[in-house]
Amino acid sequence: MLNVCEIFTSIQGESSFAGRPCTFIRLSGCNLQCVWCDTAYSRLESGNKMSVEQILREASKSHVNLIEITGGEPLLQKDTAALCEELLKSKYTVMIETNGTLDIGVLSSKVKRIVDIKCPGSGSGGSFLVDNIKRLTKNDEVKFVISSVEDAEWAKKICEEHDLPKKCTVIFSPVMSLVSLDSLAKWLTGSGLDAQLGIQLHKIIWGDKRGV
């Protein structure tokens, strides 16, 4: 059984799949409290208990092939890996977004694992499980959410120390209330990093709303 905050279908707003229709399975509970979190409700709400089979039935109603499991922190729940396996067996393209504090090795390498390495400005800096770096594959993505120039410089240092761009896709995404898209774009173009700018497309389309 899993504690599910919400299931909805929208446009994938982030990652290398941005712009594609996607069904989101948002699980409840998180082990961090990032100061800029835009889904705090998923940490605070207990959600509805659902079996893997119930979740699959609900997700199938959208007739969308791309599915993202998110949170909260989905790896806090022991049945998350089993859910991923069943979705893969049903021929879905499966993504999962995790804060990187827990072992991503419990997930199949066929799952696109989006690992959010928390910058100091999040208030959760230092929480990343460094061993996860050796588990990354070309199918995965690492995301840095940037709230300041200091965050960007810190993230650049991490990328260079661990040669992250050669291991997986690297995305720099701004906290849009604190960092403008043009300023981060300008910084990134001058950084020398093989990374891409991530824009929360769903917020540009619908604003800061739940369930989109």
Keywords:
212 residues, alpha/beta, TIM Barrel, 7 helices, 9 strands
Notes on the protein architecture:
- The chain is α/β, with parallel strands linked by helices.
- The chain has a single domain, classed as Aldolase class I (TIM Barrel, Alpha-Beta Barrel), CATH 3.20.20.
- The protein is built from seven helices and nine strands; from the N terminus they run ββαβαβαβββααβαβα.
- Strands 3-1-2-4-5-6-7-8-9 form a nine-stranded mixed β-sheet.
- Strand 8, helix 6 and strand 9 form a beta-alpha-beta unit.
- The protein is globular and about 45 Å long.
- The model has no long low-confidence stretch (mean pLDDT 96).
CATH superfamily: Aldolase class I
| N-to-C CA distance | 25 Å
* Helix-strand category: alpha/beta
Largest sheet: 9 strands, mixed
Beta-strand proportion = 15-25%
Order of strands in the sheet with most strands: 3-1-2-4-5-6-7-8-9
Q: What is the average of the pLDDT values?
A: 96
Number of H/I helices: 7
Q: What is the H/E order?
A: EEHEHEHEEEHHEHEH
- For this structure, the CATH topology is TIM Barrel
> Into how many domains do the coordinates divide?
1
Write the layout of secondary structure elements.
Layout: E1 2-11, E2 21-27, H1 41-44, E3 48-50, H2 52-60, E4 66-70, H3 80-89, E5 93-98, E6 112-116, E7 141-146, H4 149-162, H5 164-167, E8 169-174, H6 181-189, E9 196-197, H7 201-206
Parallel strand pairs: 2-4, 4-5, 5-6, 6-7, 7-8, 8-9
Antiparallel strand pairs: 1-2, 1-3
